[in-house]
Specification:
The structure is a single chain. Helix content is 53%, strand content 0%. With 139 residues, it is mainly alpha-helical. The protein has two domains: 81 residues, 434 Repressor (Amino-terminal Domain) (Orthogonal Bundle); 32 residues. It is elongated. The termini are far apart.
Length: 139
């Protein structure tokens, strides 16, 4: 997948304005070496999730600017998802929620858990699977 030429130009322009090289931006954003240079050549896709946020922060722009969005446009949800979300790790919004939750005192935590439980509705309890055609053993 190739990077949009306008996005490549935005990245190159920000690096020039900030006096950064691609490898310096990669290092600051915690990206694999060569990521920014590849993006400026139009190779590969923009990083997603936390990596996109870190790159935007290093370039001192909003994520929407990197994506070529107009002011007020919503960032596509798939661009905010981290790839490890599929591996069972926490998504960025879950990490933020947990980080804030951990700063609460115990009574407030209890209130938050109660509120979220009520908002989410009743838990689905799975019934045990019954085998058809077998009589229970008596022992």
């Amino acid at each position: 997948m190739e990077t949009d030429p306008e996005i490549a130009a935005r990245i190159e322009g920000r690096l020039e304005r900030l006096g950064l090289t691609g490898p310096e931006a990669d290092r600051s954003a915690g990206l694999p070496t060569g990521t920014c240079d590849a993006l400026m050549r139009g190779e590969g896709g923009l990083p997603r999730g936390t990596a996109l946020r870190r790159l935007a922060a290093v370039l001192d722009v909003e994520e929407g600017f990197l994506l070529g969005l107009e002011p007020g446009d919503l960032i596509p949800p798939e661009m905010l998802e981290d790839p490890q979300g599929e591996l069972g790790l926490l998504a960025p919004d879950e990490e933020a929620l947990l980080r804030h939750y951990r700063r609460l005192d115990v009574p407030t935590r209890a209130a938050v858990v109660h509120l979220v439980s009520r908002a989410a509705g009743p838990e689905v309890v799975e019934e045990p699977v019954r085998q058809v055609g077998r009589k229970p053993r008596r022992g």
